[in-house]
Amino acid sequence: MTHASALFRTLCQTVTLVAAVAVLGEARCLAATAQDAVSDAKVDDAQIVAAINKSLSASWRDSGVTPSKPAPDGAWARRVYLDLVGRIPTIDELEAFVAQAAKSRRRWLVDRLLGDSYRDEHARWRATEWANLLIGRTGGGRNSLAVREPFEKYLRVAFAENRPLDQLMREMVTASGSVRPEDDDHNPAANYLADKMDENGVQATAKTAQLFLGVSVQCTQCHNHPFNEGRQNQFWELAAFFRQTRAERVRDDEDDRPKARIVDRDFYGEGRDRMAALASLPGQADAAETYYELRNGKLKVAYPVFIDGNSLHDVFLERGHDYGDSGRLALVNRREELAGFIAESPDFARSAVNREWGRFFGYGFTRPVDDMGAHNPPSHPDLMATLATAFRDADYDLLRLSRWIVLSDAYGLDSMAGRSNQDDEPSLGQPPLFTRFYLRQLSAEQIYESLITATRADEALSDDRRDEARRRWTRQFATAFGNDENGEATSFNGSIPQSLAMMNSELVRRATELGWVEMKKKSAAAGDYAEKKPAGFLSSIAADRSLSNADRVEKLYLAALARKPDRKELAVCNQLLVARKGNAAEALRDVWWALLNSNEFILQH
């Protein structure tokens, strides 16, 4: 091994993060004080943030642990950029942040990222996250009945408008129409059900319960759940809400791949003769039943009943009608009734709060976040209840929920554990105490956008080529990084294939190449002409003669890691420059490559 190679390897090993791992017992929560702090029907953001801080501080005190110190400003800014807009900050954005008064700079940055200045970028990032959640990364692909681009556009508009979550849920659960933009009845919200709507509504039932109620019911399709309160009849009673709905396949003339049109049809039940049902008197309110099979082979009947035990039949009786179990659309639209049940359920707000908390901290109040219930109690029940109440009172405002969480003391803690809280490591199976910020892998989209932000590797590409490059790179994750069950990977997990794919990717190659590119410019006098400029961030730094080598290294660190190099790292870089026999550009290239492939770059910390 050459001297330069050895130094390069040392640099790669130096730019890492170390996480303490161990286990601590379950956190106890303050019984009522947090909820007392937000007892009013309408509260302001400061009250809710204070309630979060008070509740967690009490649980830390009860558990006898001291939280980590606050994260450095640069690390916190990087963290909040990744969580709110899906990428790391630029050097200019970091400088604008640190230029603010120390006491108010974090609130200033959150206001900007959730305000008009970053509205479109925040909406785009949230739309990407939710599209992955709702239809998966492969949703809209060759084997999918959904169309991803219009669905993401629909979600971007919704998040840019800060559409309430209950309204967004209603739009998707009740959507009808074609997923194809060229059709007259195009409804992009219908993409949610496009891949899930089978004849019996099984997939739609399981996914809707998971996403909007935080309960896992798919196991109870065939039998009562062995470990929780879920019963087989509850699954089929919930599935009965989807029995009027069909996903009709529509052929695409261009590529002959089928897409979906979500339609509602009268449902006459499974036990009656269909022709007799069609011949019955118009408006006749016959109950439309669903049958399911027990393990012993016996058949049982199910009608629409929500998971809390409220039946559609009883609800309609309260309205003065006796046709709640009818499958006739003129009398009952079951999906619309289901959306109403979901919106009114306490589990809707609890599920949203649990999922969003997990999005920002890496762990929700339950694990997993979509399997709530008596069998899986939350780690901080009172805090979860406080946030759910506040979220409901804030009209299901996701922007406000994000603000409360990222401005909390817990979100602002350092990722390094101290002696007191070194056992707060939920990856080992114990409930999280949130005494520090837990390290987690970035998603494929976050890594891509961060590479582009740091390196400017796509400057020479057209908008269409940029979009295609992004889709191609993300598809690579979904294909190459699937789990053992052929599911979709959502982040790096440190495997050798992932590391090799990252190091050898076309994007990293472009990001670390030195050279110049021609950019077309316009001049009133000369018309179009070509102007050469450095090919990306690395080339521009290497070509800037006003910078010393130490300045160049500092900018590389700031661009990639949102911090300056320490003395040890600077010393290694200087030794690498000597080993490269004064070739500063090649030495900088080695440093840049090491930074972009470091743990510190691909981790949220």
Automatic annotation (TrEMBL):
InterPro entries in the cross-refs: DUF1549, DUF1553
Residues covered by the DUF1553 domain: 334-457
Record domain DUF1549: where: 52-246
One Pfam family here: PSD1
Stored PANTHER family: CYCLOINULO-OLIGOSACCHARIDE FRUCTANOTRANSFERASE-RELATED (PTHR35889), F-BOX DOMAIN-CONTAINING PROTEIN (PTHR35889:SF3)
Protein name: DUF1549 domain-containing protein
Organism: Botrimarina colliarenosi
Organismal lineage: Bacteria, Pseudomonadati, Planctomycetota, Planctomycetia, Pirellulales
